[in-house]
Specification:
about 400 residues, alpha+beta, FAD/NAD(P)-binding domain, nine-stranded mixed beta sheet, 20 strands
Amino acid sequence: MTGTSGRTGGTGIGFDCDVLVVGGGIVGLSTAYALTRSAPGTRVVVLEKEPAPARHQTGRNSGVIHSGIYYRPGSLKARYATRGAAEMVKFCAEHGLPHAVTGKLIVATRRDELPRLHALVQRGRKNGIPVRELGPAQITEYEPEVRGLAAIHVGTTGVCDFAAVARALGEAAGAAGAEVRCGEEVVAVDRRPWGVAVRTASGAVVRARAMVNCAGLHSDRLARLTGDDPGVRIVPFRGEYYELADPSLVRGLVYPVPDPAFPFLGVHLTRGLDDHVHVGPNAVPALAREGYGWGVVHPRELAATSAWPGSWRMARRHWRYGAGELRRSLSKRAFTAAVRELLPAAEEHGLRRASAGVRAQAVGRDGALVDDFLIHETNRVVHVLNAPSPAATSSLPIGRALASRARSHL
C-alpha cells in the first residue's frame, strides 16, 4: 500500500494519523471527540463509508435517552447508561440540541409480569436510579389511555435526536483537528508491528499507529480484515415501527415489562421531539446487514449469517419468541393486538408504517445473544464487537473508554 506521508514516530514509517477510527456513527464520533479532548495534538481520522455520518443505527432508533434501569448492576451497560444519560442531557443543553427529560412508565399488564416488575425496581435502586411504584389509578394519572396492573415511573429517561448529537460530536472533533472522511469504505487492512494501513474502496490509503473498529453492523467483518477472529458474528435484527395516527393517546414514554431472556425491550410507545408517537419495535431477522425491509436481500450476507453455527443454535433455542415476532411483522392485526395490551384504545387503522432500523446483534458460536458491550483489544487495534442499546445514550463515556484504550497502543 502507498499513501501520503506524515510523522514517523521514530519507525521510519509515514503515518497519516495517530488513531484511525472506522465508523462514523455516534460511538465512533464520540471516540474521536474524546481523543481530541483528552490528548490534544493527537491526529485522528474517522472513515465512514456512507456520504454522511449517523446513517444506520445512530439515525434509525427511537431517540430514547435510557436511564439504565434494565441492566445488571456492575455491567458495562449499567455503568455506561447511568453515567451517559446525565452526560447526554448536559451535552445537548450545552450544544443547543433538542432534547427533553420526560420520564417513562414500565407497565405490567399480566400477573406473571409482577415479579419481574418488582425485580426491576430493585435493580434500578441498585443502579442508583430513582423509581416510583404505581398502582392502576396512578398509571392513569400519567397516561389516561394506558391500562396495567402496576407500573414504575422512571424520571431520568428522556428523548433527543442522536443523529444531531453525532453531527455535533463530529463538528467538535473536527474543530479540534480531527478529520472525518465520508464515502470511504474500508476494504483491506494491513497490520504490522508499527500500526495499521487500510485501503478504502476509492483507493485511498491511511496509515495509523492504532485503529478503533466502530463499524457497527460490519464490525465482525472488519475484525476479520485485520486478521483477528472476533469469536462472534453480527446477526442483524430489524426493528419495525408504526406511528399512531392519533398521538394524543400517549403523553410520553410507555414500556412493557421486558423478558430478561432477550436483549429487546418489547413493543413500546415513544413520543418523540416532533410529538409523533412511535410504536415498536418488532424485532425480526433482517435478510441483509442493512436490510430495512423484507425486500432488501443480500445473498452473500445472508449465506454468511446462515453458515454461522450460532445462528442455528439461537434459532432452535428461541424459535417460539421468534415466531411471535415474525407473526407481528407479517400481520398488522397481530401487531395491533400486542399494542392493545398497553393501549386498549389503539386501532389497526390508527397505525401507520414508520421507518425501520437494524440492530447489530452479536451472537456467539453457542447461539447466545451477547447482552453486554463486547470490546476486544489486539495489537494496535481496539474492536467494538457489540454495542447494544443503550449505546447511543452511553456514547460519551464509551467514547472516553475507547479513546483511553487507543492511546495505550500508541
